[in-house]
Amino acid sequence: MAIKCIARLRSRRVVQDHLPQASNEAAVGGGCCWANLPPELIWEVLSRIEDTESSWPQRKNVVACAGVCRSWRIIIKQIVKVPQLTGKLTFPISVKQPGPKDSLLQCFIKRNRSTQTYHLYLGLTNSLLDVGKFLLAARKYRHPTCTDYIISLQAEDITKGRNAYVGRLRSNFLGTKFTVFDGQPPHAGSKMAKSRSSRLANLKQVSPKAPFSNYPMAHISYELNSLGSRGPRRMQCNMNTIPATSIAPGGLAPIQAEFSLNNVNPSPPIPILHSKSASMENFLSGPFSNQKNGGLVLTNKAPRWHEQLQCWCLNFHGRVTVASVKNFQLVASPENGPAGPEHEKIILQFGKVGKDLFTMD
């Protein structure tokens, strides 16, 4: 009953958002009867909701509580812990925060070939036919020398809406080197990468409204192994903003607390682990190289050759059903320090389960 009242109050607040500023501030800031409840009582009620609504779609009630008024929103932000500690995704900023160490968040990606779009969903069950909870969308844009994937919080109109823009992925012409850009600076002193490639991002054909800030967060490279085209490719990911110590026992990765308004005035700083490499343009066109810059380095887990099946195999524990060169598992590279159990733990796995359906955990 309390949750239903909260939902009705939240819908009432949507109407209040269209009222004049003075009356709106009174409603959101403390004039609301729910905001005048004793803080101890509010904390107890919201804590119980947080504990009981542990998964989607029930978890939408936790989000609804944050929309009641400012005082409730402040308390709910203190109660709700980050996915790194709880494994729960709650607010949109969760998609930019590290996941739990002891388990994988099961997600899947749907590809639409006609619109060149991709949609990321959080799995709600163990079924590969799950409807899922929408998380992110991306649209592919081709250029003469590279390809951009614009990433948005909106499922449909990916090219519009400044507040929905999250970042982008850029590949070189061959599709062997990729760079992940964040739409907001990870810390106050961050500088955008300036190159001919970054100027291309401001072309109207990419997106007329998205704020294309270039804050490089990660680099991904592919190369053929010693067997050439007959063997699996080698994949390496250099994470600029995640220290190698984060995979050690007790280690934690930096966290962005919230989205910045219009990508300005960022959240608490996340350190960028700068490398001594050349510019972004050189990375996208240059040879494969390791970046020993203190950042976490991920590499694909080496598959084994199956004599009976005559193919390279990895154990995806039932999450992948179609053989594909795109299937991979990422683990911490030995470059991060002496090999240990943490280097065997799968951090991310991706695989094909249908013509246009992929799992990503």
List the helices and strands and how they pair.
Elements (H helix, E strand, L loop, with lengths): L1 H15 L4 H11 L7 H14 L7 H7 L3 H10 L3 H4 L20 E6 L4 E6 L10 E10 L3 E7 L12 E8 L4 E6 L13 H5 L14 E11 L2 E16 L36 H6 L9 E6 L3 E3 L4 E3 L14 E5 L15 E7 L2 E4 L1
Antiparallel strand pairs: 1-2, 1-14, 2-3, 3-4, 4-5, 5-6, 6-7, 7-8, 8-9, 9-12, 10-11, 12-13, 13-14
Keywords:
361 residues; alpha+beta; twelve-stranded antiparallel β-barrel; two-stranded antiparallel sheet; 8 helices; 20% helix; 27% strand; F-box-like_dom_sf; Tubby like protein 3
Structure in words:
By secondary structure, the protein is an alpha+beta fold. The chain contains eight helices and 14 strands. It has a twelve-stranded antiparallel beta barrel with strand order 1-2-3-4-5-6-7-8-9-12-13-14. Strands 10-11 form a two-stranded antiparallel sheet. A hairpin with a 2-residue loop joins strand 13 (348-354) and strand 14. Helix 3 crosses helix 5. The longest helix has 15 residues, at 2-16. It is globular. The two termini are 35 Å apart. Belongs to the TUB family. This is Tubby like protein 3. Residues 34-77 form the F-box domain.
Summarize the structure in short:
With 361 residues, this protein is an alpha+beta fold. It contains eight helices and 14 strands.
Please write the string of helix (H) and strand (E) elements: HHHHHHEEEEEEHEEHEEEEEE
Gyration radius, rounded: 22 Å
β-sheet strand percentage: 25-35%
Question: Helix/strand-derived class?
Answer: alpha+beta
Largest sheet: number of strands, sense, barrel closure = 12 strands, antiparallel, barrel
